[in-house]
Amino acid sequence: MAQVTTSPQDRELFGHPVGLYVLFFTEMWERFSYYGMRAILVLYLVSATQGGNAGLGWTNAEALALYGWYTMLVYVASIPGGIIADKLLGQKKAVLWGGIILVAGHGILAVEEMWAFYTGLGLIIAGVGMLKPNISTMVGGLYKEGDIRRDKGFTIFYIGINLGAFLSSLIVGYVGENIGWHWGFGLAGIAMAFGLLVYLWGQKYLREVGNLLSKAERDTGASFGGMFKGLFKSPLQLAISGLLMAFSIYWLLVEDVAYGFLFVFLTLVTAMMLMVYKDLTTQVMKDRYVVMLLSFILVIVFWGAFEQAGGLMNIYALEKTDRSLPFSLPLIGSEVPASWFQSLNALFIIIFGVIVANFWAKRKLKSKEASSIFKMAIGVIIMGLGFVFMVFASMEFQNDGASAMYWLVLAYLFHTIGELSSSPVALSFITKLAPVKYASLMMGVYFAATGLGNKVAGIVGEFSSEAGDGTIFLGITIFTVAFAVLVLLMLKPLKRLTHGVEDEERELPQQEKWELGDEDLVEKEENKRRK
């Protein structure tokens, strides 16, 4: 059989498209920059204003409040980022511009001025909003419908995210805590510049992915202006949106300006989602859309608990954990930097990522329960049980004045196994359920749900100063486990609403190894699968 020369975008490496690895390394450096800054942000905010490496001297509650707002906005910005990609730039160019903005944002954070601090945060929010939802959608676009490799591809991509997070927590964490906070912020900017260069180099492997739809294709889709105009002709959607907007405006004018604007924004998003549902043309599409929206609630619950890692658990490691070592290590001496505990989650993902993905893939091939909703619920339960170890840590602190480091290690281990069962699966699930013309928007809504989870994490963390760490950790455990069990009880009706979107997943033949004329081989493979 003659060999066929394949174009760059069709080439594979280790059983996956080469484009996956381009996006892998781009996202790895982007996450290095983001998680490096995240590892030291709260520590910088709560550090004393005096001394050789002065911080801002904020209270824990103030630091966690800003952390919640910042991490929420980072992900909520994915909604306009998805819209810009769908309607103006295409996903590929949106990722490019997002990377450029991120380089600028992290670079400005290196300047030791408050105007630079807030400007840098604002640019990072905008940059992640452009990059994050669209690069994830591009990963899904590398695989054909029904390709069982898709989940594994997302897990490999997810390992890239966490390789960057692991290295950044160690390197940026060390630089920030021991050399200077702003040196750490600047180092994160250099890393993002590397990611941008990788992305530019790999464009030849991404020619068929992430391109802007043709004008005719965009015109066939519902315009957002048209959807909001149509809202006034839709009594039910208008009534729901009107009630939410009235509540939002009341909160804006009477209670709290910041939360008021947040509620106004969420009301507009809700109205848009209601009109998207109305725009869908078949009952199958509508049912799948409903399941996708329900899965967003799981996402909010998961990240509302999980993101205690960068806030409350980060401060706990700094203030209440005995980090001393019985020996001395180069650079750090005999005390582990608090920011290094942020690397545990990423390290465990690198170790267990493929193992967990293979476990679920083999389970599905054996026709055992392995639906995305099932995996997400199990992930929430495992993650929630990880907080049991933090309850024990709080009890030890109350008795001895400090808790051992192994409690944090065990908590992060359970959080990681839960995350591997939930987060990459959720990313893949959205690409399966989302209507094609709203693909980037739905990925943006997914990350907005993640952002709301981050805000919930900040709010919960703020209450720890009044309720106590142990009470917060125990409450998180009880709520997450109970909520996930409720989802499992609803599993069968939810699966029916997906209309078998995951039933036809299988291992597809590598057709690029055959000549284009060998259609009989493709047909034989398909007949074999049907039998």
Q: Give unreliable regions as ranges.
A: 507-531
Mean pLDDT: 80
Strand order, biggest sheet? Answer: 1-2
Task: Note the run of SSEs as H and E.
Answer: EEHHHHHHHHHHHHHEEHHHHHHHHH
Distance between the termini: 27 Å
Report the structural category. mainly alpha
- The oligomeric state is single chain
Using the CA coordinates, give the radius of gyration: 23 Å
Q: What is the strand tally?
A: 4
Q: Which range does the strand content fall in?
A: under 5%
Number of helices: 22
Largest sheet descriptor? 2 strands, antiparallel
Shape: globular
- In helices, the fraction of residues equals over 70%
Overall description:
It contains 22 helices and four strands. With about 525 residues, it is mainly α. The protein has a two-stranded antiparallel sheet with strand order 1-2. A two-stranded antiparallel sheet has the order 3-4. Helix 4 (about 90-110) runs antiparallel to helix 5 (about 115-140). Mean pLDDT is about 80; it is low at about 505-530.
Fill in the keyword field for this structure.
mainly alpha; two-stranded antiparallel ribbon; 22 helices; 531 residues; two-stranded antiparallel sheet; single chain
Short description:
With 531 residues, the protein is an all-alpha fold.
Compile the SSE list and pairings:
Layout: E1 12-13, E2 16-17, H1 18-46, H2 60-76, H3 78-89, H4 91-109, H5 114-141, H6 149-179, H7 181-201, H8 215-220, H9 224-231, H10 235-255, H11 257-279, H12 283-306, H13 312-319, E3 324-329, E4 333-335, H14 342-365, H15 372-385, H16 387-400, H17 405-433, H18 439-462, H19 464-467, H20 469-489, H21 491-497, H22 519-530
Antiparallel strand pairs: 1-2, 3-4
Helix pairs in contact: 1-2, 1-5, 1-6, 1-7, 2-5, 2-18, 3-4, 3-5, 3-18, 4-5, 4-7, 5-18, 6-7, 6-14, 6-17, 9-11, 10-11, 12-15, 12-17, 12-18, 12-20, 14-17, 15-17, 15-20, 16-17, 16-20
